[in-house]
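step: validate -> pass
step: tokenize input -> pass
step: predict -> running
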Amino acid sequence: MKNKSILLIIIIFLVFCFVVFYKGLNSSNTYSPNINNKKAIPFFKAKDFNSNTYLNSTKIFNEDVFYVVNIWASWCLPCRTEHPLLVELSETESIKLVGINYKDKLNNAKNFINEFGNPYSQIITDIDGTLSVEFGAYGIPETFLIDKNKIIIKKFIGPINEEIVKEIKLATK
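step: predict -> pass
step: emit ->
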């Protein structure tokens, strides 16, 4: 009798553990910050990727077009997977792509651009990561859609995909 009750308790315990672990596997643990994406782009000064001269944000965002700001680095593997989609997106006439090179070595970043192509109309460097934080980035890659009024209207966390490219193209028509 005592052996049967111990066996029953063990079976109930194992079933309970199985249910808890099964529920844990099905729940998402991805953190997605709750932020208000609609904000003006920050005013900043940053070094130009190619000329190493300082530019300010009013010179970079000076046209009446939609902008896509992409934060990337040569050491970022997801940045490599999204890069062909950025090249595709750069062919859209109503959009200008601005790249922010995040905490990267200049030679590595230039090799990355030479190897995979340059989809950006402008690339600026963010050696210490403060510019990316001012934009509201939590990591890389992150992409921001900016309207003609220089307001960030959408933020994409992680690498962009075909669905996001379609969404950006639709929003900029």
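step: describe -> Residues 2-26 form the longest helix (25 residues).
step: cleanup -> pass
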